[in-house]
Structures are given as structure tokens and as C-alpha cells.
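Quick one: structure for this chain?
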Amino acid sequence: MADWIHPNRHVRKLIGMGLVTISLAWLGGITFYWLAPPQHNPLKPIELSTPPGVFTGFKLDRLAQNPQGCFAALDKIGVAYTRVEREGPQPGCHLRNALTLDQSLTPYSATLSMSCPLAAALYVWERHVVIPSAEKHLGSKVTRIETMGAYSCRRVNSAKTGSWSEHATGDAVDISGFSLADGRTILVKDSFGKATSEGRFLAEVRDRACNLFSATLSPDYNALHANHLHLDMGLYTICS
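Got it. Here's what it folds into:
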């Protein structure tokens, strides 16, 4: 005669198994939270001083919803800036939770006003991509980053109609080149795409920018970007 098992025993087993699974998941989550480096842990605040990791791009995007955390991250690594709030001449143009960059690791060729998340992404790119890549490929330090500007009240491709550019909200910056300690200036229009040390340097800073910014556009994208790298923190993701 088959043994009869009361249904409550099955229920208790299922509950027990469920509790064990939840406990193990909880323990694993706690262990991961405390032991995983911040750049690989989506739950920890961003650390701009640490090398980029799996979740760095995600955390940079998330700063748009956390202005206080964004400015705190810049303060922690010593970026000097002046807070800016500005309404532009047209409804699609404005600077909110933004700044004018006063001092980063490397000087820029022009004064830049931009959103805080863009400033954070630019710092990570500058520190962990541009500076080491220049020493790797060019054997010299970057003394200035050549820029064509950030905030600009204009539409995409400077058209008279159509969508507003990410520049119109300070969420984009254009980089035209890099000046080096040995006197050279590496320009995108002259060296991008070439099989030279300068070309390899530009290819690396473009490729690795794709993991930090929402959109990274280079001369590979179209003729309008033949002389610069466009880096932005907009809604659309593209790497070209």
C-alpha cells in the first residue's frame, strides 16, 4: 500500500526550498555589493576616479536623474566648475543642472558650458582613455584638448528646422584634436583613419568613448564630422 503524504508536507517543502533560495540570493547579493568594484556594481554610486567598468556608462546616464549626486562626484575628484542655469533664446535651448568647466585634468582650448552628466563622462574619458592612450601611442602627454564647443542653441546639423541638437541643452561637445607636450597637435581632420600612431590614437579614443557617451560620432559617420569627434549624452545610442 502506497504511503500517503499529507499535502501540508508538500507545502512546507516548497516553502522551505523557497526560503533557502531567497536566503542564498540575498547572501549572494550582499556579498556582490560589498566585494564587487564600484565600476562593476550597478548599485554603488559612480566613482569617476576608477577605471571604467561594465556599468560605468549606465551610471553616467543615470546622473541625469541625480543632479546632486553628479555634482558631488565632480567635487570628489576636484573638478573646478561654476554652476550655470540658463534659458536660451528659444524653447528648445537651455542649460539646467549645468556648469561652466573651470579646471579639469587637462586644459581645453575654449571655455565649455555643459550639463553635469556630460562633464562627468568627459572627465572619465579624459582621465582613463585620452591621457593613457596618448602616452601609449604617441609617447607624449596631452597638454590641451582642442574643442569646437559644447553648448550652442542650434538644431541638428545647424539646420533651420528639425530636431534640436544635443548641443542646445549642453549635452554634447565637439573635440577637434589634442596638443601634446612635445609640440605636436593631433587633429581629427588630418590623422583620423590613417595607419599611423596618430591615427591609432584617434581610433582608440573614439572607440572607447562609445562605452561612456550615448553617441560618439567621428569622420566615419558623415562628412559633417570630418574634422571632429562629437560626444553626447542624449537619448539615442550610436557609435560611428
